[in-house]
Give the backbone structure.
Amino acid sequence: MSGYNAQEEAEADRVLMVKKILSAAFYALASFMITVVNKTVLTSYAFPSYQVLGLGQMLATILVLWFSRYMKMLQFPPLDSSVARRIWPLPLIYMGNMATGLGGTKELSLPMFTALRRFSILMTMIGERFVLGIRASWPVQASVLAMVGGALLAAADDVTFSWTGYTLVLLNDGFTAANGVYMKKKLDSKELGKYGLMFYNALFMIVPATIVAWCTGDLESSAAYPHWSDMLFLAQFLMSCVMGFVLSYSVMLCTQYNSALTTTIIGCLKNILVTYLGMIIGGDYVYSWLNFVGLNISVLASLGYTYVTFKRKPANYILLNEQSNKIDTV
């Protein structure tokens, strides 16, 4: 009987590992696609407002999930007075994450954007330690520090330096880290589920985001944009909106089956491809040897982290029980 139970447990472990890998791959693909499409829309086509593009992504998320619930393809709790309390502070983090991410994409070359995004990994690791009580193993910590070190080296010789771009990306790192950690916390509590979190995040923030876009003149400048009749631009704009929903779903899925840190690192790992393609896409990367070396150090450290993460046993994460001051191996 014990042998049968052991076989069942082994099979369950294999299924879980497949789910971990597939959800991580899905997130990596979605994150890569939306980064490239956003860069094309905002830089190559010079679309004037990343805020309006973000509004399109929010609207697409709301419409797709509402229609899916209406058709009974999925379920999530209806809106009531307790939803805001149960979801807070995720909507605020969601809007900040989207706005600063799109702004940073527009302001910086893709290689530097992806390098600076790796600071979100360090922030996530710190957030997991203090919010979720999870301490990363030493190999994980070493690979994260190497990624950040490579990004700093690249930034030291970035001839296209932009205060606005750097500020937006570093703010985006903080929002990404907070989103991953609190998303994991909310998903574990199973109050709203992944679809409810996605729907109400977008629903609660679309009105404030629209007001901000109107006050800054972004709605007016976007309405006057001359390329709305360009079918290729329109197709990529709509693709960006839909990919915003797909990305949100993939983040939920990856965070559900993996850790918040793993979700963040996978998002940066896909940037290996984005880093090198970004030297061509957008046309705003300027080569220097120190910058190029720093980018490659960060890329290699990303590969190292991926190996450590998916090879490690569950015991490599340590759950800190603060109440009893004991350290329990998960």
